[in-house]
User: Which sequence fits this backbone?
């Protein structure tokens, strides 16, 4: 009967463990969510780059990236802030937004302003003088950069005349990486040339490119080599470039951004194989102060991963302080021991003087000699007590022995004097 009760009890305990612990164990075995949503850029070339990054991460890392198309009329930043995506690729000339953090600079994009050759436009102001323009979709990086450049010359965006996708404008404003398929884009529309913001020799002398870079610090002058795009650039051409950043929402998990940063840099050779001119310079060594957004805490942790932590950084200082403290402690200990030795040595001198008084007294049979010894011994005790009161002696065992020895000697002297006085009578 007891065996049946025990079996029933064990069965209930096992059922209880399965109900309470099994769900916790199963949840612990579930893979961590490594899903990221990347909003797709509007420009065709940038879209291809986003797809390449997504494919590389999905195939060669523990992260899974899903591409998210932006809603009509919405930019990648707006979709990011709205929570429709986790990461995005945006240009570094956007307005600062506290909800958006930078992860890494990916590649640079160049402003290509192409004008019909027969127009022979050689002044930047002429580019905005009533000509039809193709600058990419609304809210695209190309259009924003072109309008920012126009505003630097007091040209309002509302006065610019844009054409629809597929139409052939008089001016192309293409914001794309260097060595992109630019020539294929414009060949169908006729003969174009790339507008130059001056000559290479004028850079740094107050040229149009210098003025725009001063007003828009995210933009930097760049020289496109001659014949980079065939007949479109027959001579070196001065234009503007800006970095494209991988950004994330500021509330995205730090460990996820840390892993994303590492995987992007690890996959740099694979990305450079697809876009040699873009990702060959991808590196974690960049100027953080040049970014339009604050770095994500996860990215900061990744960039600082090899730097010594607080304890490592100051371990040398700590070791030096400990060494100094040990040396100081040893010095203080030595001083204390020396001080004690010098004070104890004074007790030794009192002992020697008391022994000398006893020896002198015992070598004489004259009453005056013994009386003198008694007076000297009492004076010696007084000196020892005076030294003690002035804190020059330690009331230790040596001091007690001296007092006991001198008191015993005084009794001997007094007894001998008493005997000698009786004999004299």
Assistant:
């Amino acid at each position: 009967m007891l065996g049946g009760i025990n079996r029933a009890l064990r069965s209930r305990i096992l059922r209880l463990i399965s109900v309470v612990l099994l769900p916790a164990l199963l949840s612990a075995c579930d893979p961590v969510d490594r899903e990221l949503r990347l909003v797709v850029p509007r420009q065709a070339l940038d879209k291809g780059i986003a797809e390449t990054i997504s494919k590389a991460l999905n195939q060669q890392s523990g992260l899974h990236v899903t591409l998210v198309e932006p809603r009509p009329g919405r930019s990648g930043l707006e979709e990011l802030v709205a929570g429709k995506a986790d990461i995005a690729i945006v240009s570094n000339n956007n307005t600062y937004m506290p909800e958006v953090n930078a992860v890494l600079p990916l590649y640079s994009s160049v402003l290509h302003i192409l004008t019909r050759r027969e127009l022979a436009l050689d002044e930047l102001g002429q580019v905005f003088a009533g000509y039809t323009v193709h600058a990419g979709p609304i809210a695209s990086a190309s259009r924003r950069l072109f309008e920012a450049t126009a505003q630097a010359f007091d040209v309002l965006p509302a006065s610019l005349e844009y054409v629809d996708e597929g139409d052939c404008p008089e001016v192309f404003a293409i914001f794309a990486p260097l060595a992109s398929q630019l020539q294929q884009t414009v060949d169908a529309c006729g003969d174009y040339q790339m507008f130059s913001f001056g000559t290479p020799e004028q850079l740094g002398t107050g040229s149009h490119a210098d003025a725009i870079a001063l007003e828009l610090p995210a933009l930097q002058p760049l020289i496109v080599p001659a014949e980079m795009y065939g007949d479109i650039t027959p001579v070196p051409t001065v234009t503007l470039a800006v970095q494209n950043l991988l950004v994330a929402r500021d509330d995205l998990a730090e460990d996820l951004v840390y892993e994303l940063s590492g995987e992007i840099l690890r996959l740099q050779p694979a990305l450079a194989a697809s876009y040699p001119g873009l990702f060959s310079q991808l590196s974690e060594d960049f100027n953080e102060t040049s970014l339009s957004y604050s770095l994500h805490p996860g990215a900061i942790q990744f960039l600082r991963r090899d730097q010594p932590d607080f304890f490592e950084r100051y371990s040398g200082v700590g070791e030096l302080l400990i060494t100094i403290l040990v040396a100081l402690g040893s010095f203080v200990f030595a001083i204390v021991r020396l001080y004690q030795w010098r004070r104890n040595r004074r007790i030794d001198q009192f002992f020697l003087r008391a022994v000398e008084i006893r020896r002198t007294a015992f070598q004489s049979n004259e009453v005056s000699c013994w009386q003198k010894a008694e007076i000297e011994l009492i004076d010696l005790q007084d000196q020892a007590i005076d030294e003690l009161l002035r804190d020059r002696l330690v009331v230790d065992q040596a001091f007690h022995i001296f007092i006991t020895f001198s008191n015993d000697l005084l009794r001997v002297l007094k007894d001998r004097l008493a005997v000698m006085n009786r004999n004299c009578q």
Remarks:
- The first helix runs from residue 2 to 29.
